[in-house]
Amino acid sequence: MAGTPAEPAPPATPPSPGDGGAPPEASDATGPGPGSQGPAGNGDAEGAGPPPSPWSTPRQVLVRFGTVVALIAADLWSKARVFAWLEGRPAGMEYDRHGHFRYPLVGEHVTFMRSLNPGAAFGQLDQFPYLLVLGRCGAVLFLTWMLLRTPREAKRMVAALVLILAGAMGNLYDNLFLESEGHPFGKVRDFIDVYFARWDWHFPTFNVADSCITVGAVLLLSSLLGGRDEGARGGSEPVARAPHLQ
């Protein structure tokens, strides 16, 4: 008696991903899918924000120009106060060997003395008053523009520009708003006199505005020769990115 033929076994079903297996050739796929992006893909460009503005923020502008105004006020107040006080010939004033009427502060080495300067530092350019005043006006405009564009990280540069701008505006005020007989512009009021007795030499009389300009020039030179401030250098370092996960 012939036996009944055996039924064929059903085909084996491949294991599903949920059972711990992997679909065929899934483990061999090494490249990113069509929708994935590499380190230089468009995802990084889209995630980056807009480039920083070269202009200072409103808060930085307020602090910087508020400091400028305070320094100008200190310069103008000191000029008016000392000139008015010396005009009253206070007790203790004396003539030196050169005929200067001075009030000693530190012996004969540092004194108060009234002086009107028609020129720039050391009395230069007094024969070119229009050129001098126009140059000061141009310097004020340029320094203002620089102060608006200097980044916060460049601290020495910011301090230098604040000091120089305040000094320039303090002296320019005397040129534009004081009257001087025989001169188209007002003369700058100086009152701090430094005398070197060993050489019998007076350093040119100066004021608070001149002091601001001198200190600011030193800071500016230091900033230019020393490179950018530490904060600015640190802010320019590239940001490390995580490697792409395949």
Structure described in brief:
Helix content is 43%, strand content 13%. It is α+β, with helices and mostly antiparallel strands and 246 residues long. Strands 1-2-3-4-5 form a five-stranded antiparallel sheet.
Describe the structure.
With 246 residues, the chain is an alpha+beta fold. It has a domain of 169 residues. It has six helices and five strands. A five-stranded antiparallel beta sheet has the order 1-2-3-4-5. It starts with 41 loop residues before the first helix and ends in an 11-residue tail after the last helix. The C terminus is likely disordered.
Mean pLDDT: 80
Summed up, the helix count is: 6
Strand content: 5-15%
Helix/strand structural class? alpha+beta
Oligomerization status of the protein chains = single chain
Radius of gyration: 37 Å
Record the strand order, biggest sheet. 1-2-3-4-5
Q: Could you describe the largest sheet, including whether it forms a barrel?
A: 5 strands, antiparallel
Estimated helix fraction: 40-55%
* Element-level helix/strand string: HHEEEHHEEHH
**Low-pLDDT runs:** 24-29, 33-41, 229-246
Please give the number of β-strands: 5
The coarse overall form would be elongated
Distance between the termini: 64 Å
Task: Set out the fold topology.
Layout lengths: L41 H6 L10 H30 L6 E2 L5 E6 L3 E8 L11 H21 L5 H23 L10 E9 L4 E6 L1 H19 L3 H6 L11
Antiparallel strand pairs: 1-2, 2-3, 3-4, 4-5
Helix pairs in contact: 2-4, 3-4, 4-5
